[in-house]
Amino acid sequence: MDFSTICVHGKKKHIDATGAVIEPIYQSATFAHPGVGESTGYDYSRLQNPTRFIIEEKLAAMEEGIDCIAFSTGMAAISCLMELFCPGDHFIVSDDLYGGTSRLFDFISKKNGLRFDCVNTSFIEEIAKCICSNTKAIFIETPTNPMMQVTDIRAVSELAKKHNCLLIVDNTFLTPYFQKPLLLGADIVVHSGTKFLCGHNDTLCGFLVIRDAEISEKIRFLSKTIGACLAPFDCFLVNRGIKTLPLRMKTQEKNALELAKWLETKEKVKKVYYVGLPNHPDYEISCQQASGFGSMISFEVDSERTARQILSRVRLILFAESLGGVETLITYPTMQTHADVPLEQRLKKGINDRLLRLSVGVEDLEDLQADLQQALEGESIDERVSI
Ligand SMILES: *Cc1c(COP(=O)(O)O)cnc(C)c1O
After folding, report:
1. What's the CA-to-centroid distance between 74 and ligand 1, angstroms?
2. Residue 140 and residue 297: Cα distance in Å, rounded?
3. Helices (H), 16-86
4. Is the CB of residue 213 less than 8 Å from the CB of residue 188?
5. Among all residues, which ones are annotated catalytic?
6. Cα–Cα distance between 342 and 129 in angstroms, integer?
7. CA 348/CA 344 separation, integer angstroms
8. How far is it, in rounded angstroms, from Cα 175 to Cα 61?
9. What is the pLDDT of residues 340-369, one digit of tens each?
10. Any atom of ligand 1 within 6 Å of the Cβ of 100
């Protein structure tokens, strides 16, 4: 079955006796047993819930994994995943991770005895240098947030296999519509489903998609024990969002490519970071492992003043955290998503007070350009954006 069909119907259609076209929301905490020692397969919603199973089965099929487990947020998914490991275990992680993930590693996982080396995973030799006998996992995001660096998933997975460690890929930015890390050799895929999968900025959710039965069983045990599971109504919302994932991803990418090219022509814009621009250093590798570039753009303007001016002047585009929804959002990584990353580390990566990040939505391209133009130049506001 084609990917778009799976997004709409799942691997198999869930039609009940009523013929309802939309899967029901099983808003039930518990389930009655037919008899002693018997179960319908559903006992208690922390462990199993039919609405949750629908979305888990669908995302497992989309990522081509054997199992998927849904969590209340992306961070809940990653926190649960970290419980697979023991004190003393060593991780190699990207030095340009989502700020919340870095915070989890720095303030919680380290306290629990895990050890981390942060490297630029775009350079495979940097990863290789850090591998030691206790290295249990390599954790990457590709492209990274907000610097849009790409890591060669195949090459890292070969290295991971050679050293018997797991490769974990946070696939939030591209989603399986554009990139399927499990097919490139990754062991576990992480999602903040809050972003593109859900796509409408109306719910939080997280997922782990797994390739191996033994790991899946361990994570299911951790998930039911910790209990940060996704509620039935939120499962319904993300399931509905996924039905239009291919349409949204296509439109958002098209808008992003045009906006990135347009931003490059602006005098006050000094640098544009978008993987889909052929001058991006990782353009080639991106073409080899992904079928698209996504819709996240970072750009550096000429001064902090300009950056702040844009943030206070945008009207159609919203100055808000998060990404991946149909609404175009602009963020200020240095003060928002990455505020907890130490300043020196931030500056080293290029996350300075002139850097802005755009999550491009599905609005009309010219409306977006008009809004950015007036925000950049302070020109008279086009009627189209004065909403
Ligand atoms: C947002 C995000 C997360 C965290 O997900 P939440 O749903 O906000 O908890 C993790 N990784 C990436 C890449 C993200 O963008």
Report:
1. 5
2. 19
3. 50-63, 74-82
4. no
5. 46, 98, 170, 195
6. 24
7. 6
8. 13
9. 888 888 898 899 999 999 999 999 999 999
10. yes
